[in-house]
Structures are given as C-alpha cells and as structure tokens.
Design brief:
binds zinc ion, 468 residues, single chain, 4 strands, mainly alpha, Zincin-like, 72% helix, 4-stranded mixed sheet
Amino acid sequence: MINVVEDILFIPVAAWQKQLSFVTTDPLPWKSYVIAVSWTVATFEIYLLARQYKYYSKKEAPPNLKAYVPQDKFEKSQAYGKDKARFAFVKTIYSQIWDTLFFYYGGFAICWKLGGDLIGVLGYGSDNQVLQSIAFSMIFAFLSSMSSMPLSLYSTFVLEEKHGFNKTTGATFVADLLKGWALGFAIGAPFLWVFITIFTWAGHHFVPWLLAFILGFQILMVFLYPTVIQPLFNKLTPLAPGELKDKIEALAEHLKFPLKHLYEIDGSKRSSHSNAYFFGLPWSKHIVVYDTLIANAKVDGVEAVLAHELGHWYFQHPFKLMMIHQIHTLILIGSFPAFLHSTPLLLSFDFPATVAVHPPVIIAFTLYQCVVTPIETMFAAFMNSVSRNFEFQADKFACELHSKHGVPGSEGMGKRLGEALIAIMVDNLATLWTDSWYSAWHHTHPTLTERLRAIAHYEEVKHDKKEL
Ligand SMILES: [Zn+2]
C-alpha cells in the first residue's frame, strides 16, 4: 500500500523538488524574510482590529437584534469587546517584539545548544539526535509558554474577571499549566522519536511514511482525547435523566446518529462561556453538553443547538475537514525535502557551520514552518471560510428537521435555534457589530446577524415550498 502511494506521489514530488532545489544551495536572507513576513501579517491584523474597533462605539444593537437584546446587556457586550480588542492589540505587538528578538538573536540556535548541554549533563552526546531534539523542543516550548504567561494571566484574571467570566482559581490555573506541560511531554516525546526515526530509516522516501504516521497519530488522538486527555481537565458526568435527555436521545435515534454516551461537562469550572459538541468513531459517538448551556438556554433551545450539531454529523463535516487537512499536510510535507538539507537556511538562523552542514530534522522542520508562514496564514483564513459555510449548512439542517427529515416535535426548530443562539450570545456578551473584513479573516462562525438572517431565509423557503 505504502509503495503504491509512493509511486503515485513520487513523480510530482520529485518534479516539485527540482523546482525547489535552489533552497538547498542558495544563501538567501531567510531570517530577514521571516521577520518581514511576520511584521506584514501583524500589521494587516492590527489594521483589521482598527476596523473592528470602531464598531464598539455604537450605541445601539443591530436592528434585527434590538428587540431581543436588553440595552444594558448590549452596553456590557460593547465594553467587553472594546477591552478584548485593546488586549488583542497589545498581545499582537508584544508577541511580535518577542518573536523578532528571538529570531534576531538566533533563538533557535541557542535552544538547540542548550538542548545539547542538557543531554550532556545526563551523559549523552550530541550524536543522539532524538534526545537532543526532545530537549530542544522542551526548552523552546517552555520559553514560549513563559513569554506568553503575562498575557494569559492578564487575560484570565483581569480581563475575563472584570466582565464576570472567569471561574479559574489560581490553583486551577497552575494545575492546568503543569498538566499541559506533562501532557505535552508524554505525547510530544514519543511523537518526535517516531518522527525523526522515520527520516533516518526511510531516507529520501520519507513522504508516504510520514503521511501514514501523521494520519495514524490523528486517529489515535480521536481515541485518547475523550478517554484520557479531556478527563484530566474537566469532569464529564452522564446527563441526568429527564426531558432534555429524552429529547436528545429521540432526536439521535430518529436521525440514526450512533449515540453511545451523553455527557454533561463542567465547563463552568473555568469559564461561563457555553457550548456543545460531539466526537467519537463513526459507529460510536459521544455528545457533550456544557452545564453553562443547560443553565442559559431552555430545553427547547438546547435541543435546537444539538440539532445544529447533528447537522455537522449528517453532512460529515469533521470527516471533510480531516480530508482537507490531509491534503494540506501532503502539500506541506511534499515541499519539505528541499529544506531538509538546506545548510544556508540554518546558517541564516545563526546555527554554527558544524550543525548546519547536516541539519537536524527537527531544526530543518521548525525553520521550514517559519518560512511557509504566509501560505499557512492564507490557509487558516481559507479554513475559516470553509468552517463558516459548514455552520450555515448545519443551521439549515436544523431548520429542515421537520420538513425534510420528518422528525416529530421538531416544528419551528429554526425559530428555537435562533432564540437559543441569541440567548447564548447575550450571555457570553458576544460582539454584535462585526466588521466584514475582520470577520472573514478571523471567525470560524458566521456572525449572529448573518446566522439569524440565513435562518429566517431557510424558514421562508420552507413555507414557500409548503404553499406550492
Ligand atoms: Zn456548528
């Protein structure tokens, strides 16, 4: 199988590598390029933020929401949005300065050397690439985490606290941090070990093997996330028997959704933002509802939100997203070989010639990721637009539960979904006025106004059809 994949991939990958051969040989100013690109992206994002910022001065809710949103809630949401936008501005500038200094002073080369020193203390030499790579990644992750610490502390304990969302205690914050690091190491270290071993073992033929490994890893995470990882951070309890449970089970049964477990999650332990989601294997799914959603919306509303979630399942959105990500990974990895042996790339990032002559895989891959930032940024914006389309589709699905799928008791689901969305948005103090550029670039979900307009349209189309 792998050989067949390799044969199919080999010709285009080889042709593409020929195009990229200059990367291996030419001494290009890679570092200046990466710094320039990161400032270009940051400047564009600050411009978008400035476009969005002026909407926080509006005195009244958008016309189609005015009837549903009390004026005091609207004013609170504007104040929250303004504070978040100011914070985003500071965060962008701060991260930019940190990154620039890190690149400028050869941060990657320093981390690599420190990694070598660290394993040296443990009695291993720099010939042990796997260990030094793990040490390098640990040091780099620790530094990144430390650099963003002031921002996360401020965001959690000042910004969210001020607007009444923070439920995180100091103890939870520290425990989450430590668990996150432990988890990063427990998953990251074996991942890196296999990742590097594939390169040393498969040589020039690593592309299909690496793809197979990454796909396998993603599938493994589908198993591990709900069973091992999430319980470390949140408590999932089976949803209590009652009207809500009966309704969700009936809905799942009617749509032939393979519901295995129905949970309530204590999202309120950290924040009072509310949500619901599903996950699992094609034949065994879990639905998780946030306790905050149950508290904020009526049973009818929660059911409508779940109907929307089942729309994602019905149209196989998670699978489609995974396929797009696979193609993306293929393109990314297919372009990597030229960078794998690029001595000029490492020299440009201040690595000593002794290291640059035979670039360690992890270093080449890390620098490669910095180089492809512009493409990755565009890809992220593209994925946001795909995601927004999927959201509209799932809303449409919920609206058509009665007319198209004949689910009993699902009349007026669109109206119920609209009301639930408004209730969630108002409780979360979500931004109600949104700049179209800002939204197109950043948002995975359409704005509330856009969704309500679409829902009204789906409902109208439905009624028109009935009259015909
Ligand atoms: Zn959705």
